Amino acid sequence: MDVLHLFGSTHDAFYYDLSRMYAETALSPAGTRARYAAVAPDGHWRFGPAPDALGAPMALPAALAEIGRPDLVVPHMFCRRGMTAYRALVEEVLGLPLVGAAAGTAALAQSKTRTRDVVAAAGVRVSAAERLSPGALPGLAPPYVVKPDSEDNSLGISVVHDSAEAAAAVAHARRFDAEVFAEAFVPGREIRVAVVELDGETLVPAFLEYPVSAARPIREVADKLEPGDGEGRAGLRQSRRADAQPVCPAPVDPDLGRALGGAARAAHRALGARHYSLFDFRIHAETGEPHLLEAGLFWSFSALSAISKMLAGAGHDPTEITGRLWRDAAGQSTRPRSVAE
User: Fold this and answer.
1) Which architecture does CATH list for 128-184?
2) Are 103 and 91 in contact (CB under 8 A)?
3) Which of helix, strand or coil describes residue 280?
4) What class is the 188-211+246-329 domain?
5) What's the CA gap between 47 and 33, in Å, rounded?
6) Nearest to 321 by CA among 294, 296, 303
7) How far apart are CA 209 and CA 191, in angstroms?
8) DSSP designation for 84
9) What is the pLDDT of residues 39-84, one digit of tens each?
10) Percent of the chain with pLDDT over 70
């Protein structure tokens, strides 16, 4: 099976480096042949057998001819255009099989407020929130979190403990997005939940917990990413700070596990996710109830990817599961096989 890995960003160098970090560590299932296409911030494309072995830059018309007819396209682009326009280009314009959410679904999940509305209508619990019109400040009582609506990686997010901090938090969020909202802070654990579609069933693998504390109540950019090694690889790498490392499998009792799995499956269906999905929840310290924070409809099929780690934490082989999912997405599924939920 010929697989084209599409990575890069036309947004900025940060998103380009983030995309490359995952693309260069993509898994290689048996029976697949990999090729890479990179889109640079200036819009030019480059192709090659590896992320560090790309050919000369070319404009879009030439790139469209160079793409060819791979059996499957695996997207590694995380910026807004990468999650939407480039997915639409692959699937809707070129008619190529794409693994992961379609462009319209990815666009919905990019918006935290719209995601909240959709999953709440499906019965998934979310905390109180309000959209902020230009010039407005939150009416929520602190503590609350101010967020850009369509930004990821904790960019632009602030916790407001006192109303005097509100104006600065809103201004910071608006540096990243014109649409900003405030969300009631949920004290307690932060747990990530994945849903993977296999053979007509949904698998929820091991839960992954991110460390939070009174001193660090939310995850910040530095908790996730740090500068790369400067040796020709991607300019970013996952944080190596000891107090930022996730725990997988996270210790979760059966009742909480059922609640998290049920909420994630309901959100997956409500959003119209395809092949896989990823959700972040806060578990209220007093009530024990999960509150959905956001959806992440991305899996780069890298050893670094959260879903890969969660599969491994549940005793599955991420490379083998990847191969099965890719064959399903490409319409080349082998005989049905069952994975216990």
Assistant:
1) 2-Layer Sandwich (3.30)
2) yes
3) strand
4) alpha beta
5) 14
6) 303
7) 4
8) T
9) 999 999 999 999 999 999 999 999 999 999 999 999 999 999 999 9
10) 89
